[in-house]
Specification:
Strand order of the largest sheet: 1-2
Oligomer: single chain
Largest sheet: 2 strands, antiparallel
Number of helices: 10
Amino acid sequence: MNITDRDSNPIDVEVLPLLLEARQYPPGHYKRKQCLSKIIRIIQKSKKLWHEHTPYYEDALQLTWLYFCQNICEAGTGKQFDPERSSIITWLNQYLKWRLRDFQINKAQHHTRFCSPTSSTGTNKTGDTMANLAAPPDIPPILEVTRHWVETDPSGELRELHILNRPDANCQVLLLKRIFSDMQWDQISQEFDLPISTLSSFFQRRCMPVVKKFGEQQGFL
C-alpha cells in the first residue's frame, strides 16, 4: 500500500514513514528508538487512544506501550502491526481494551473472593459483562498468569528488590497491592509511611522492568 492511500487517516500518514524507517534497524538501535519515540508522541498528541476513568487505566496503558515497543517492528510474531488491516490507533486500542478487560476481571474475582456469595445480582451483572467481552483465543490471560508468578515469586527476585532500608516495601508486595488489589498510591503511601513519589518511582524503575522481562519470557509482549 502506498502511504498516500491513507490520506483519510492523518495519524497513519505521519506514522507509517517513521515505522518503515524503524524497521530498517535492529532491536535496541538508537535510530529505531528515535523513530518509536516520535510515533508515541504523535499518538499521544492525537488523543485518539481509548481512555476511561478507572483506577487501573494507567497500568493497562503502560502494558500497551510495552506491547507497542516489542511488536511494532517484529515480523513473524502474529502480533506485528499491519497497516493493510487497520490503523495504528485501532491496533493499539484493541490491545489496550483487552488489558483493561483483564484488570476488570481481576477486580471482579477479587471482589467475589471477599464478598458474600449471596450477592447474586452483582455477580450476574459482572458475568454478563464478561460474556460480552470474551477475549479471542490468541490473547493469553496475562493477569492470571502474572498474578500467580508474583504471589509465588519462585526465584525470590521480587522480594529481593526493595526500597533502600525497607525490605517490607518490595516489588512483590507493591505489585500485589498496586495491580492485583486495586489499591491507590495514596493508600499504599499511608500504609508504608513513604512518599507517593518514592513508591511510584521505585515501582516504575525496578518493578515494571522485571514484569516486562517475565512477560517477554511468557510470550505476552
